[in-house]
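Let us practice reading a record.
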Amino acid sequence: MRASRQALVLVSAAAVSTALLTGCGSKKADDTAGGPPAPAAATVTDAPPTTAPTATTSPSATTSATASPSASASPSATTGKTAKPSPTASASSAKPTTAKPADPAPKAAPAPAPVAVAAPAPTPKPGPVAPPPPPAPATPHVPPLQSGCTPSKPQPDEPKEAVATALTTAAGQTRTLNLSSGGTDKLPPLPVNLVKAIAWQESGWQSGILACDGGIGTMQIMPATVSWMNSKFGTTSDPKTLPGNVQLGTQLLDWLVAYYGDSSFGGKYDLSPDPATGKTPLLDLVVSAYNAGAGNVHYNTVTDPATGTTTGSLAIPNPGYVASVKALMSSAPWNKAG
């Protein structure tokens, strides 16, 4: 019995010794493998999501990153005591910086809107003034000598001497214009060369001509003008006769002088050139409107707020016609015509 008990003790001691030897061998293997296993990577909750894994291979790097997010920007914070600094760890462990978009180029300040300077109303002369013009014709009258079609001759032409006499007589009249308001406006004689130049431009002084657009005779009177002028001046002129035709044409010129003179020039009817500038604004308006219609011809005034000076500008749709008539006034080709 004693012998068997001793044998059991020996067996138990052998088992304990074997277990101890087995455990020491496992630890020795770990020691020779290079030291204790690296701790698990720490989760840095306040570090940028782009932190490179290499920054967590060193306990000191992990500790530094955990202690302060800004420490990861330093290369020494991403390495162990014996490890060389890793450029990759340094670059990747730094907080990413989002490139701030460049400020857009400053927009140019919008140009200030032009300030419209209200033109003062022209100072009318005392007493009645000319009425507004009638509606503008659809198209300006085209003199037959400048038109593309061939005019007709429903009656023979009067001699040039007879035409010259009729034009001179009509130009020299002092007329009284009946205004729609019930008043009247007395008009001075017209320049003879103006009346003759208009007649030459319109018809070449052909009293029997009929234009394709309806212009009649020497002064190329349009049918609608006949009743209009007869009512304004209290006459019964016939455009198919030389005296009546020239009378209607000069009446229209008188009406245009009154309209533009009263509405734009303070009741002045002077058609001669301005002594200072040599310009003839009233004459230009009258000549232009005889051809294009008063509704298409305008005089605009603007006052300079700094100086108080008022200047005018002409809105003329037919400057070539005006220039031609003014040239005829100077050259007087009818004096050379046979």
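A brief commentary: The longest helix spans residues 2-32.
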